Amino acid sequence: TVGATLKAIEMLEQSAALPNSVMEKANHFRSRMAAAGFDLVKGNTAIIPVMIYDEPKAIRFADELLKEGVYVIGFVFPVVPRGKARIRVQISAAHTLEQINQAVDAFIRTGKKLGLIS
Asked: I need a surface site. Which of 34, 48, 78, 111 has the fewest CB within 10 A?
């Protein structure tokens, strides 16, 4: 673990390419999701909470996305306050824009299916 951490720090000190890539991809995901009508928690990180608000719907949403090949976690009470259920999305430098677009498309299909967006 220590060796991997030291190597990661070394790589980050040598180049900002990976962090920049992550943020470009996260911003792409955010802009497409917002344009589709999803409520996202504001922030400038690669972790993007998609607000669902309804606990059973958040769990079902995550299950439906898994069927589409998109692995996300539904966060519900007691992890988050009641009425603040969400899907937690984490973008990485390893994701391609094609994968991100496929994930957004799956979110849109599922959001419409579950009546979260129109």
From this structure: 78
